[in-house]
Amino acid sequence: MNIDDLKNTWNDDVSYDTPEVSIEHKNKINLPLEKIRKNMRMEFWSTIGILIFGFAVVWIPVPEAPFKFKFYLTVLLFSMVIIISFFFSKFFKLYRDIGNPMMKTYDSLKDLMHQFDLNKQYYLSFMLSFVPFLVCELIIVIEFLPHRKQLGNLQTATTVISTLAVGLFGLFLIGKYWYRIFYGKYVQQIENLINELKK
User: Do residues 126 and 42 touch, judged by C-beta distance below 8 A?
Assistant: First the structure.
């Protein structure tokens, strides 16, 4: 047996066809994928709108707000834009992959589920990345906005800690709820369809 015969025998042994996904399953998968894409578009444009609104609110002429207050908030907003740009570049890759799906094989669907798992981690990191901004904004507001009476050290500490505790818990709950409603349930539908294909 020569080398060419061995190569051919080896290729025959290891080559296998990955099963095709039926038209019916493709149609079932396309619906939740399109919902995910629609929600990603909505989230992108709403985030842009919120940032524009944030910049507008900071620079509305308010007599009591000193320049430093507005400047620090503007720096924070620009920092948020940098963080948001990083995460949205990751989300955009998934958005593009969903838009041009090669949903012909079981393996490509498994790869898509891996991307969803990865982007879920990105999404949670995205929510957590707002914690330092929340802390900085709270400190700036307490330090610069006028109060009817000067806050003592204990009052300042209590206000910061209690607001952070409520804010962080609220951010965590909103993040989990938001992901589950706008993405999680559709990812679960796709996972169920992939499990059907296993059988």
Answer: no
Locate all alpha helices (DSSP H) within 59-105, ordered by sequence: 67-99
pLDDT tens per residue across span 19-69: 555 666 666 777 888 898 899 999 999 999 988 988 888 777 665 667 888
- List, in order, residues 6 or more apart from 10 with CB less than 8 Å away: none
Q: What is d(CA 103, CA 98) in angstroms, rounded to the nearest whole number?
A: 9
Tokens of 15: 């080559």
Contact 40, 88 (CB under 8 A): no
Give pLDDT tens digits for 144-153: 766 666 767 7
Average pLDDT estimate for 3-12: 53
Check if the beta carbon of residue 87 is closer than 8 Å to that of residue 125: yes
Cα–chain center distance at 184: 12
Q: How many CB atoms lie within 10 A of CB 138?
A: 15
* pLDDT at residue 82 tops 90: yes
Helix %, strand %, coil % for the chain, to 5? 80, 0, 15
Amino acid at 192: N
Q: According to DSSP H, which parts of 59-184 are helical?
A: 67-99, 106-128, 131-144, 153-179
Q: Which two tokens stand for residue 29?
A: 């998968």
